[in-house]
């Protein structure tokens, strides 16, 4: 691979590394401290979850879902009101996910079956569910006092995965968090084994892929996982919200790369007519994408409510834009058919790092928005230009 | 001899891998109607695109001399300024706009920031009167028929002050009556001194209207026939020029393939246009194809061939489809949607591989498996290794030239894309393959390879229907040939009995009879 091609392929990774180093220097190393990493994950949990759902919608042809911010608020509002009325926490959680899924399926129905443009169908959802949230909440904030809920979904002070190993061994609690280290270690091990199996299969089938390249990529990602794990282990361990993020990203990675429906998403976005003529029920593919993002909005509602220990009628505003921006910065095509979960993760982390870094350096919040806007524009312009060069 | 208005001298135009025009020389006298005839892909449209500046100066070799000056057009605007106006085969009108708005689209009256609507509509009405259209210029285009829309196109050209009017297949979508009216209108313009070039497949119309006929074949001008005598030139004379090429070894022999029992049979198949349900696109067609047989369907563009194939393939085209279909002797009703057609083991390989066939942004592998994902997946989970092996197998079988099956299809040449498309449908394991223009837009070498693949399919006992508008190909490849014109089958011939001349004659007769 030539140097130019390397830069083209890994632009956003390189940009991320540059930005991380820049803020590490600008904050005198503070941005890499355990507390900062912990905050980065906890604060941006909803972005990863929503962006995963949004990616599927974008894949179908650059379609977006504008309603997720409002749906996050609405599902959270319903859940909070239920819990404040002493309804069992699990029933509330189930209700929030189910409502999210139903809203997604409802909006997907208009888009898939009646060909209502996604922009319009979800814009109307954005208005309607913001209004419903206000109605449910009566215009006021509702707090959550259910400790178990807060713990599981990452709210409050003690929402970390407890150190089971120290408990089991009868050791005193302390640092580093051994469970955290163990989980991180297992994750790296599994990842390395998967890469080795992939290389083995490639050799068997004579697929020519750069083996050193794959090993280097795997090694670098392992180092990053290891670093984050060690830092968090020396704080209080993995925040519980990380479980949900990892679960969602894992499932979406699997859907997009291994399943037939994932393949259909890419195909519909790449050439809908050809896909229909290949015997795929293309409208159902749209429906799936919008139902899935509805479910993710429900989950994001849970995470948001837990993080804020309650819900305000204005929560969730602009969340849809964070999710959309993450996908596009991560290399998803605005015309559909192109985009990866891994790219979207990079996009979301990049946005998160820039946000947090600017906060720590003390940049005016209005200026921060300008920077975010420019990053999004720059990423997409670069994408368009690099594609034009290829032709 | 009258003054030469236009001369195109030694025009050569090369596309990547194909020489579309090879040293073409073409002269048009002032005040004549000059016809340009030739088979599909002969280079007529390319020549006109060079003339009108769609292919700008510098992308071709040779000179365009208009009115005594060498012209270097950079775009259509440049040529239109000199009065060279082209009317394309597909109507380029915006249905939701009025006739007047359409006529001055991009050429608005008045100031850029303040369109003068009064002038627009009064001028438009003036030109509409000239073409004999009684509609108001404030009528929306979608409310008038295609015959009138064609007249609007001509009025639009006149409004651009046309001195040399080029009409590309102006009557292809018109019925007999509208066509005749249009041709008479052209003769009327000629009397007023207008020069015109007409491209047409309908040779009877050409013989009727043209003063001079230039025949184009394989990117070169073959001959120019004078048609000013008392007797119009015979169509046979024109056909001879159009098809007179050697036909040795362009088609691989198919030997020892046994033709079995009837596989697919449709009878009294009628299909209506999806947007204009009163129009019949396929009209009472009956046909059959047997195991191991290659059946050719020949017809010009717009004859209804694609529509026939797609309506058989799970009603993916058309509405109010009537008729019976039998597969293997059993009457079947295929539900709407390609999936049910695939279940009935029918495959349709589209003529438009980029538009309807392939996902260009995905790899060869992904495209190969798309129509038959079930075969390589387990409960909706794709077995990546199996998928790769399948794609590799077809790459080898069809000799697709690519470094790896992970290559994006968009980066392949036309011939290799066609092979991927064929691979995709072969992998779907059909018994009946409907191939629509399987060799369109690919070079001669790749064509030969595609023909070999078709022979292999027949040898494997598949039933192949090959739709084509290239006569030599139909003659060279088919066991049996159906001839289609204007939605109807107008003849059926065994390959031994068929010749270019008698097929063309059948089409002409049916056109005249209608």
What's this model, at a glance?
Chain A has helices at residues 3-9, 11-26, 34-59, 68-84, 89-113, 118-137, 147-152, 164-168, 178-205, 211-233, 241-258, 260-270, 272-277, 282-308, 319-329, 341-361, 365-390; strands at 142-143, 310-311. Chain A is mostly helical. In chain B, helix 4 crosses helix 5 (146-159).
How would you describe what is shown here?
The complex is a heterodimer of chains A (391) and B (514). By secondary structure, chain A is mainly α. Chain A has 17 helices and two strands. Chain A has helices spanning 3-9, 11-26, 34-59, 68-84, 89-113, 118-137, 147-152, 164-168, 178-205, 211-233, 241-258, 260-270, 272-277, 282-308, 319-329, 341-361, 365-390, and strands at residues 142-143, 310-311. Chain A has a two-stranded antiparallel ribbon with strand order 1-2. In chain A, α3 packs parallel to α11, α11 packs across α12 and α16 runs antiparallel to α17 (365-390). By secondary structure, chain B is α/β, with parallel strands linked by helices. Chain B has three domains: 4-243, Rossmann fold (3-Layer(aba) Sandwich); 262-345 and 430-513, P-loop containing nucleotide triphosphate hydrolases (Rossmann fold), CATH 3.40.50; 359-429, no CATH class. Chain B is 33% helix and 27% strand. Chain B is built from 17 helices and 24 strands. A six-stranded mixed beta sheet of chain B has the order 6-9-10-3-11-12, with helices on both faces. The longest helix of chain B is centred in the middle third of the chain and has 16 residues, at 176-191. The relative contact order of chain B is 0.10. The A-B interface holds A 201, 205, 207-208, 258-261, 263, 266-267, 269-271, 273-281, 333, 337-338 and B 313-314, 316, 337-339, 341-342, 348, 350, 355-362, 366, 369-371, 373-374, 377, 380-382, 384-385, 388-389, 392, 403-404, 406, 424.
């Amino acid at each position: 691979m030539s140097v130019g091609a390397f830069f083209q392929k890994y632009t956003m990774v390189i940009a991320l590394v540059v930005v991380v180093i820049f803020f590490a220097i600008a904050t005198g190393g503070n941005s890499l401290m355990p507390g900062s990493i912990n905050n980065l994950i906890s604060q941006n949990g909803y972005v990863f979850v929503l962006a995963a759902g949004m990616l599927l919608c974008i894949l179908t042809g650059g379609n977006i879902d504008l309603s997720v911010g409002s749906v996050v608020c609405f599902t959270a509002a319903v859940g909070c009101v239920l819990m404040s009325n002493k309804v069992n926490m699990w029933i509330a959680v189930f209700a929030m996910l189910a409502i999210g899924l139903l809203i997604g399926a409802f909006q997907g129905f208009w888009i898939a079956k009646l060909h209502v443009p996604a922009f319009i169908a979800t814009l109307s959802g954005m208005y309607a569910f913001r209004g419903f949230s206000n109605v449910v909440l009566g215009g006021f904030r509702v707090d959550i006092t259910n400790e178990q809920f807060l713990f599981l979904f990452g709210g409050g002070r003690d929402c970390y995965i407890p150190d089971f190993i120290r408990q089991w061994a009868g050791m005193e609690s302390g640092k580093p968090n051994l469970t955290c280290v163990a989980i991180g270690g297992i994750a790296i091990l599994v990842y390395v084994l998967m890469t080795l199996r992939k290389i083995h299969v490639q050799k068997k089938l004579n697929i020519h892929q750069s083996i050193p390249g794959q090993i280097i990529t795997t090694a670098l990602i392992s180092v990053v996982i290891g670093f984050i794990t060690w830092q968090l282990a020396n704080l209080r361990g993995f925040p519980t919200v990380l479980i949900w993020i990892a679960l969602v990203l894992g499932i979406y990675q699997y859907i997009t790369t291994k399943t037939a429906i994932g393949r259909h998403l890419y195909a519909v976005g790449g050439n809908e007519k050809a896909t229909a003529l290949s015997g795929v029920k293309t409208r159902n593919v749209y429906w799936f994408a919008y139902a899935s993002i509805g479910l993710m909005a429900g989950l994001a509602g849970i995470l948001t409510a837990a993080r804020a220990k309650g819900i305000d009628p204005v929560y969730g505003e602009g969340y849809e834009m964070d999710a959309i921006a993450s996908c596009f910065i991560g290399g998803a095509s605005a015309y559909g058919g192109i985009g990866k979960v891994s790219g979207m993760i990079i996009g979301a982390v990049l946005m998160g790092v820039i946000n947090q870094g600017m906060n720590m350096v003390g940049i005016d919040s209005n200026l921060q928005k300008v920077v975010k806007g420019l990053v999004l524009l720059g990423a997409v312009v670069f994408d368009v230009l690099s594609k034009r060069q290829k032709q | 001899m009258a003054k030469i208005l236009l001369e195109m001298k030694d025009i050569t135009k090369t596309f990547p891998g194909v020489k579309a025009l090879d040293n073409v020389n073409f002269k048009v006298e002032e005040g004549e109607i000059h016809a340009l005839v030739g088979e599909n892909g002969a280079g007529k449209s390319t020549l006109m695109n060079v003339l009108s500046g769609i292919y700008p100066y510098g992308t071709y070799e040779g000179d365009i001399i208009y009115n005594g000056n060498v012209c270097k057009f950079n775009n259509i605007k440049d040529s239109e300024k000199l009065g060279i106006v082209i009317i394309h085969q597909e109507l380029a009108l915006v249905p939701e706009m009025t006739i007047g708005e359409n006529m001055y689209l991009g050429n608005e009256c008045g100031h850029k920031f303040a369109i003068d609507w009064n002038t627009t509509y009064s001028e438009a009405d003036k030109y509409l009167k000239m073409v004999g259209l009684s509609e108001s210029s404030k009528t929306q285009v979608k409310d008038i028929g295609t015959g009138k829309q064609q007249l609007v196109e001509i009025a639009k050209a006149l409004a651009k002050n046309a001195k040399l009017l080029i009409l590309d297949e102006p009557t292809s979508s018109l019925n007999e009556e509208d066509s005749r009216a249009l041709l008479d209108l052209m003769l009327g313009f000629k009397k007023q001194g207008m020069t015109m070039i007409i491209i047409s497949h309908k040779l009877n119309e050409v013989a009727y209207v043209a003063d001079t006929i230039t025949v184009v074949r394989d990117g070169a001008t073959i001959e120019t026939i004078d048609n000013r005598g008392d007797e119009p030139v015979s169509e046979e004379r024109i056909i001879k020029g159009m098809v007179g090429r050697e036909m040795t070894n362009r088609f691989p022999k198919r030997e020892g393939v046994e033709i079995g029992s009837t596989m697919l049979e449709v009878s009294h198949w009628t299909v209506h246009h999806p947007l204009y349900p009163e129009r019949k696109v396929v009209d009472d067609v009956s046909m059959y194809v047997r195991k191991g047989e290659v059946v050719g369907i020949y017809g010009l563009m717009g004859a209804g061939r694609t529509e026939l194939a797609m309506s058989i393939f799970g009603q993916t085209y058309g509405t109010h489809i009537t008729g019976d279909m039998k597969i293997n002797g059993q009457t079947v009703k295929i539900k709407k949607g390609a999936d049910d057609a695939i279940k009935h083991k029918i495959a349709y390989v589209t003529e438009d591989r980029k538009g309807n066939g392939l996902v260009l942004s995905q790899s060869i592998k992904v495209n190969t498996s798309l129509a038959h994902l079930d075969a390589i997946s387990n409960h909706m989970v794709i077995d990546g290794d199996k998928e790769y092996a399948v794609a590799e197998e077809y790459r080898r079988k069809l000799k697709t030239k690519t470094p790896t099956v992970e290559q994006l299809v968009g980066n392949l040449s036309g011939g290799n894309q066609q092979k991927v498309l064929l691979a995709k449908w072969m992998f779907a394991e059909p018994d009946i393959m409907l191939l629509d223009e399987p060799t369109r837009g690919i070079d001669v070498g790749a064509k030969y390879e595609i023909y070999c693949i078709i022979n292999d399919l027949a040898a494997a006992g598949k039933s192949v229907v090959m739709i084509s508008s290239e006569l030599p190909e139909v003659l060279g490849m088919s066991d049996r040939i159906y001839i289609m014109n204007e939605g109807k089958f107008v003849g059926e011939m065994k390959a031994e009995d068929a010749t270019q001349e008698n097929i063309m004659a059948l089409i002409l007769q049916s056109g005249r009879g209608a």
